[in-house]
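Notes from the 1:1 (GR / supervisor)

We went over the backlog. Supervisor wanted to see one worked example end to end before approving the batch request, so GR pasted a single chain during the call. The sequence is below; no edits were made to it. Supervisor asked that the structure be written out right there so they could see what the output format looks like.
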Amino acid sequence: MTSPADLLARDRAVAWHPFTQAATAPAPLPVVAAQGAWLHLADGRRLLDAISSWWTVLHGHAHPAITAAIARQAATLDHVLFAGCTHPPAVAVAERLVALAPPGLTRVFFSDDGSTAVEVALKMAFQAAANRAEPARRAFVAFEHGYHGDTVGAMSLGDPGDFSGPFRPLLLPVERVPTDDLAPLADVLARRGPEIAAVVIEPMVQGAGGMRFMTPDFLRGVADLTRRAGALLVADEVMTGFGRTGRCFAVEHAGVAPDLMCVAKGLTGGVLPLAATLATDAVYQAFLGPDTRRAFLHGHSFTANPIACAAALASLELLPAALADAARIQAFYAARLPPLAAHPAVASVRWLGAIGVVQLAEDADYFGSDLGPRLRDALLARGVLARPLGPVLYTMPPLGITDAELAALYDAIEAALDDLPPPHASR
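Structure output shown during the call:
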């Protein structure tokens, strides 16, 4: 095996890492294996994966049912184009998704990751309006603090910040409204309703924008206003789907059935890239006709890859146990998080399903832009991989994490918080 130092030197010579300023970032973690909730490093350390490796690993790393399904499929059919061809794993995944999805979502368009699933939804909404002779519907509504990915369309929906700053001249026209008041959305739709192709929302939990929660009533209100305006409702369930919020899909908390729904991340159990955009039959019908130009002319080389679909089928078979695990994790949070709210560094706590959030007290003399990295390092020293969002320290572990591992995770978090200087103390 290569040594940790050699692996890092080779990485430094050729690799370009995401969301990383290579001039200042610390060396990446040399991960060589993973099992359950744990990552194993080349230097012999192991880390608890408190964030499911960017919210993807659903049941746990190297789940035997998923790895076995991948091996069987690889030996049978590794890949075939999905334009003009089909295959059993893709049809089976589509059938399962339609059966699990909110009522009315009857068509499944496969893609590769969350950003592309959202991009597909935007293009579907835009072209469906044109195909229905509503060419004025060219704009979108999104929400403050939202994040939907990094392709141009998905990035346009996200709340502008440093990440998208260089690309603002490329962004699509988007109206942005808050998630704590329906009045601004009602105002936009009253003024521009006939111009809006779709309203796009992360249901119940906004992820990268700070793990911000919304109420079911708010989500229901968004759906109602969108319908009355004749626009399509797009639910971005890339992060929230497949049990993360305690329901199979987050829209279920509000009883909302969107027109388009995007899924990815946990679809394959977090093992292989696969995404899907689910659509209603009404959306699908808008693309049918004798003219090919009316069709949805979009695709990817690895659309509906059979091996990824086999992993997805195996993961979906495990979903009932995963939902039970999400309920168990939520019960753990309900007991463990409230006492943390009394910590001097903590402003508040919140949780939903398998998502637990510790909101740190923000003070100009105490917390700075390096807070996230400092907390990350403090937790790494205690055997935990986390990626705090500034003053938001969250956990979203694999759903198969044990109670003992959960307790150890929050013991490490409490110890890391105890090591922070008191508020207002000099740094």
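Supervisor's comment: The mean pLDDT is 95.
Batch request approved.
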